[in-house]
Amino acid sequence: MNKNYWPHFIIGLVLFAIGLGVWTVKTAIDNPVELDDTYMMKYQQVDKNIYNIMKMKKEFSKKYKVVLLTTKLDYPNATFQFKILTKDGKPVSDAKAMVLFTRPDTSKYDIKKNAEVKNGMYTVRVKLPLAGRWNVLLKIEEGKLTVYEKYKLSTLREMKKLKNS
Fold first, then answer.
1. Residue-by-residue pLDDT tens, the chain, 165 positions
2. Backbone phi, then psi, for 42, in 5-degree steps?
């Protein structure tokens, strides 16, 4: 007697497809998409105002430049410093600056602080919860202009680990 295994194969295939669907949904729930916070606002607001944001950045770049003084972050006590200079090199001390420290892969450890200004140098001191790579986002308000800058920095401990490997 010959047996027909096609019904078993079709049922197995359907069960396999259902299993893959359940696995996909579980993986998506366990690993949510992190929102991009480059402009320190929701993406809907960025979409609505992107032309104004780009226009202000262009106007800011004509008048000023941001000079980054920190290239590596200390761990755990990090100090981030920068200057805002006019095109002729004079320091700007009356701008407001907000700094956001965030991990590239999650917003769980975000730290947002206002920068302190002293002698034209903007300084932010934070206690970092983790060593490794950090995105440092600046929101600078100078007069009617608001600009955003993004820097990718690593902690010194992480840099030493990379050199040794």
1. 678 888 999 999 999 999 999 999 999 888 766 666 778 888 788 889 999 999 999 999 999 999 999 888 888 899 999 999 999 989 998 999 999 999 888 888 999 999 999 988 999 999 999 888 999 999 999 989 999 999 999 887 555 554 554
2. -65, 150
Which 3 state secondary structure label does DSSP give 125?
strand
Rounded to whole angstroms, the Cα distance separating 152 from 135 reads: 5
Strand partners, 153: 134
Cβ neighbours around 43 below 10 Å, total? 13
The letter for the amino acid at 108 is K
The closest alpha carbon to 37, from 102, 126, 134, 114, belongs to 102
- Beta strand pairing call for 133-142 and 145-154: antiparallel
State the pTM of this model: 0.73
Question: Which neighbouring-strand residues pair with 141?
Answer: 96, 146
Which helix or strand (DSSP H or E) is residue 54 part of?
A: helix 43-63
Q: Which domains does the chain have, with CATH numbers?
A: 34-164 (2.60.40.10)
